[in-house]
Amino acid sequence: MARLSSLLSFSLALLIFLHGSTAQQFPNECQLDQLNALEPSHVLKAEAGRIEVWDHHAPQLRCSGVSFVRYIIESKGLYLPSFFSTAKLSFVAKGQGLMGRVVPGCAETFQDSSVFQPGGGSPFGEGQGQGQQGQGQGHQGQGQGQQGQQGQQGQQSQGQGFRDMHQKVEHIRTGDTIATHPGVAQWFYNDGNQPLVIVSVLDLASHQNQLDRNPRPFYLAGNNPQGQVWIEGREQQPQKNILNGFTPEVLAKAFKIDVRTAQQLQNQQDNRGNIIRVQGPFSVIRPPLRSQRPQEEVNGLEETICSARCTDNLDDPSNADVYKPQLGYISTLNSYDLPILRFLRLSALRGSIRQNAMVLPQWNANANAVLYVTDGEAHVQVVNDNGDRVFDGQISQGQLLSIPQGFSVVKRATSEQFRWIEFKTNANAQINTLAGRTSVLRGLPLEVISNGYQISLEEARRVKFNTIETTLTHSSGPASYGGPRKADA
């Protein structure tokens, strides 16, 4: 009995200690008296672009448990493969390019030959080709896109099999939203003529992140001379790729290569950064540009972790959830549209409204939101749980605003067009509105409204019924009194 009592006392003391430690580490994270439109706090320059990082220690981002990154990749720029310990949801704000993902344990499904000769030896090409080089006459046309030693091997026997095999490569364009699991390596290449701009939210507070609340990119190639300046204590430490930490001899044995090549993998003398410029053609195996994808019916059995669809486009008004030609549109993306989001526990909303259009006051019922402006300007007001207006001002292109769960927000476009992307920390985020046909006030009895606000029943009726839109409305002025007005076109 005494032993049980001691154990309970120790457990209680441990819980108190852990609670106190957590409180010290993240004190009053969501007691926010003021929100600010945030700009990037760190810029990591590279040979062919830059990476802009927002300060994840900012109270509003700390409250939401996320960090935010913007990648700007110049034409012919290659963002070298990296992975995070957190779930990531990205949005292509501008440009076009290629994206590749490497999911651990999945097979290479993109191959440069549709025919494999079963009697021709190894399907992996290199080792077999080195032993047979110069034997027989090959099909020279099959070697297109391969350079150096691979180009020479392309002139050998058909029995060599595939020249290259790798995991899935996709075309990406403006409006694409990309979901990425923790630990999945990802790379991007800009094959267009204008910069490729990608913004990403990292869910630091996710149950899948077993490290601390710091965004930690793990690079498979390249070096970052500036280091992870956003992590305390690493300001002066250059960030090397993870192969750099092993001895060349170990790498040589693991990859079955010579030590000199192993040293090259470590990029020790490479100062190009994590976005490099590709010299010459970039001939990776990829499908042709996709056309408008028809809606497919699935029964839930076709999609595995290796073949899971991770991309969807939110810039097509024909697929919008809310659409008014004279006001704008709003599109949402959740786990019903993109099943992979069920595991990431993230979702997104894309909005585009015209000048003087307004998104009716609303709040996120079950998620924090991070709003990033891709085009234009808007006047935004945010109200917290204390009934205080914690943000009241303009937000413009390139700025970020975090909106905690339950905080009410209203947006009104002040430029010709206002466009934004919202990342939300729930796979199926839900909103509630204050005004409109499906609002909380519309659901209350007139007597409750009249007594609660000390207004007449006639005034209560106007409050309840005058706004008949659900999400978007004009903000040119107050509605005229005298009864419910007609819906806007």
UniProtKB/TrEMBL annotation:
Residue span(s) of domain Cupin type-1: 35-263, 312-461
Signal peptide: 1-23
Disordered: annotated segments: 114-164
Keywords: Disulfide bond, Seed storage protein, Signal, Storage protein
Compositionally biased spans, kind Gly residues: 118-148
SMART domains found in the cross-reference section: Cupin_1
PANTHER family, alphabetized: 12S SEED STORAGE PROTEIN CRA1 (PTHR31189:SF30), OS03G0336100 PROTEIN-RELATED (PTHR31189)
Name of the featured protein: 11S globulin
Lineage: Eukaryota, Viridiplantae, Streptophyta, Embryophyta, Tracheophyta
